[in-house]
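[User] I have long wanted to understand how a fold can be written as tokens. Those tokens are not coordinates but codes from a learned vocabulary of shapes. Could you go through the record with me and say what the backbone is doing? Thank you; the sequence and its tokens follow:
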Amino acid sequence: MKKSLVYLALLHYPMYNKRRDIITTSVTNLDLHDISRAARTYDADGFFIIHPSWSQHSLIREILEYWQEGYGGEYNPDRKEAFALVRTAENLDQVLHLIEQEKGLPVETVATDARVYPRTISYRDMRQKIKTEEKAFVLLFGTGWGLEREFLSRSHYILEPVEAGRDYNHLSVRSAVSIILDRLLGESWFETV
């Protein structure tokens, strides 16, 4: 049982590409579907898709309308339910302000990355915070080759990588979200009683 609210935010800027240039990535249909389904499965309180381009917002609206108001929602009510968690924003500040205004709770950000940083927090410690603190946590997920480093440094916490010690550590964001949600919000079968 969680005491905190937990939101997901999928960011598309500022991201790195494989040459470490700062770029804006495109929204992908698969990310919207798979992350919203994982968010609903683990009872997240919302899923924000953050993109600075209004043309990308238009694409997101088209996808959501089909699955919420069009034939897709009729055909697959489970998908419609998952997409009910999705909201869009131009930047992270909008999301944080919106949550704070709506919920009246302190909002803290938890960045994710495939690298270890000095302020890295373990899954066990983050899970404990979610279970015991009355706050809203926003889990930040990057696209491309990850969140820009300065952006990471402004987060309250940086979650430890899914598999830091592996020689290959480049999961799709969809896979990483599912694993991280399971570790933070899933069944606690691994904890000792």
Summary: The mean pLDDT is 93. Residues 6-185 form a domain with the Alpha/beta knot fold (CATH 3.40.1280.10). Strands lie at 5-11, 15-16, 22-23, 46-50, 86-89, 107-112, 120-121, 136-141, 157-159. The CA atoms of residues 127 and 184 lie 5 Å apart.
